[in-house]
Amino acid sequence: MPGLIRIRAFVSVNLPDEIADRLEGFLSSRVKPLSEMRLVTRDQFHITLKFLGEISLEQVVLVRKSLSEMKFDPFEIDLTHAGVFPNFRNPKVLWLAGERGVSELTNLSRIMNEKFSQIAAIPKDDRRFKAHLTLARIPYPELWNERVFARLAEVSKLGLTWRCSRVSFMRSVLTREKAIYTEIRY
């Protein structure tokens, strides 16, 4: 029956290999030794523009077509500082963000939010968009370590800047160990 098969998906900006290598090296040598927090792995580095949730194959086709028609001028993105969601009293997500590319990423997210709700009946996300790369989820308060956050101040020296000229359509499969991401070509 049509519509029964569903996949978990999102649209993102993925890091170029050189930037991902630099960030992975920094995290494994300078950050991981300081905490029991489980950091995301290199293959999970991305900036989510629009989480689509569980979508049907029909919706996949519509999103692919929309993305293939989407045009935007390339722009610079950087990752220069760390933060946490929702706040430092109760940190649940550790992230990196930057200054360059914030308005462009926000605009792309807004366009996708509108377009995908119209063409593919994907619900709009009414939360304020915050361009970021998730580094770790913090399920228990005792895993939080201020030394990790202090060490992340060094990220500004890594030169994590790149030119974004495309977005990626990603499938996410959840396993016990981690989410596995695979790009869906469009």
Main beta sheet: 4 strands, antiparallel
Helix content: 25-40%
Q: Give the terminus-to-terminus CA distance.
A: 25 Å
The computed structural class is alpha+beta
Written account of the structure:
By secondary structure, the protein is an alpha+beta fold. The chain is built from four helices and nine strands, in the order E-H-E-H-E-E-E-H-E-H-E-E-E. Strands 2-1-8-9 form a four-stranded antiparallel sheet. A three-stranded antiparallel sheet has the order 4-5-6, with no helix packed on it. A two-stranded antiparallel ribbon has the order 3-7. Helix 2 packs across helix 3. The two termini are 25 Å apart. The model has no long low-confidence stretch (mean pLDDT 94).
What key attributes describe this structure?
single chain, 186 residues, alpha+beta, four-stranded antiparallel sheet, three-stranded antiparallel sheet, 9 strands
